[in-house]
Design goal:
- The chain has 137 residues and is mainly beta.
- Strands 1, 2, 3, 4, 5, 6, 7, 8, 9 and 10 form a 10-stranded antiparallel β-sheet that branches.
- It is globular, with a radius of gyration of 16 Å.
- It starts with a helix and ends with a strand.
Length: 137
Amino acid sequence: MNGVANGVYGGDLPNQINTPWIDFSEQSTIVGWTTFTTKSIFYRIIGKVAIINFNISGTSNSATTSFTIPFVSGSLTTVLNTCIGVDTGTSNICDASIATSASTVVFNRWSAATTRTATWTASGTKTITGQIIIQIS
């Protein structure tokens, strides 16, 4: 089993699991807020896999929502993870996506069970909270 896991994660898995979480909150280019009440973007790399935890909340100033990470996604197709969002006080399921060979995580919200939109309200309180796991180059 260790041989399989080491191949997927790119090396010495037991030592890589102990890597620290890195705070990228201040370095990330964050689009969608004018002020923050919470700004937390942490990542951890295990071989060729990056785990990114985020919690961003504050006053919205843009209909689009995104943040950058310090590495590019790998050669897999676009990654899409579910997260929690709040748009002007209304809770929404949202998704965090990153395209192949990109370094920007983009957020869409679901205003109904079948309606996905990239448009957020450019005023009021906006929050995104969740995790995205990607292959990195």
